[in-house]
UniProtKB/TrEMBL annotation:
Belongs to the peptidase C40 family. GO terms for biological process: proteolysis. PANTHER family: NLP_P60 DOMAIN-CONTAINING PROTEIN-RELATED, PEPTIDOGLYCAN DL-ENDOPEPTIDASE CWLO. It is an enzyme of class 3 (hydrolase). Its EC number is 3.4.-.-. Keywords: Hydrolase, Protease, Thiol protease. This is Putative endopeptidase.
């Protein structure tokens, strides 16, 4: 279940997780999705799988199982949850649901830098689980504030 609430213009939110139809005569025909900071089951499963790889070395182009690059790790972790992601961080930046920073939840992927050259899985408490180099550096947790630019946040499931 994607944690979003669809709210029609002129209608208040009655409960989380429901889609509220505009039955009034406000004249509005649009609605907006509001994402909540609630983890998706697929994202949590992917995060759990990724964390089993803690300490394995970073390797540019690595797709496991003994070494990983950032997007290879994310792709593999989400495959354990039944989510097929493209191979590169640039491609991963264009799939799933875009999530605002205010709704960031564990299991969401974060694409970093303007060129979308790095990706990690948000683990909560200001930490990102990721693989980054140079080659040989053990993969693990990095503070979210380590990166200067978030390109996009994506949620799956």
């Amino acid at each position: 279940m994607l944690c979003a609430v669809s709210v029609a213009a002129g209608v208040s939110v009655a409960s989380v997780g429901t889609s509220i139809a505009d039955t009034g005569s406000s004249g509005s025909s649009g609605s907006v999705e509001i994402y909540l900071p609630v983890p998706s089951p697929a994202g949590m499963q992917a995060l759990t799988a990724a964390m089993t790889q803690v300490g394995r070395p970073y390797k540019w182009g690595g797709t496991g199982p003994w070494a990983w690059d950032c997007s290879g790790l994310v792709q593999w972790a989400f495959s354990t949850a039944g989510i097929r992601l493209p191979r590169t961080s640039q491609q991963q930046a264009r799939v799933g649901h875009a999530i605002p920073l205010s709704a960031l939840a564990p299991g969401d992927i974060i694409i970093f830098y303007r060129d979308a050259s790095h990706v990690g899985i948000y683990a909560g408490f200001g930490q990102v689980f990721n693989a980054y180099g140079p080659n040989g550096v053990p993969i693990g947790f990095t503070p979210l504030n380590h990166w200067s630019h978030i390109k996009t946040i994506r949620r799956f499931g």
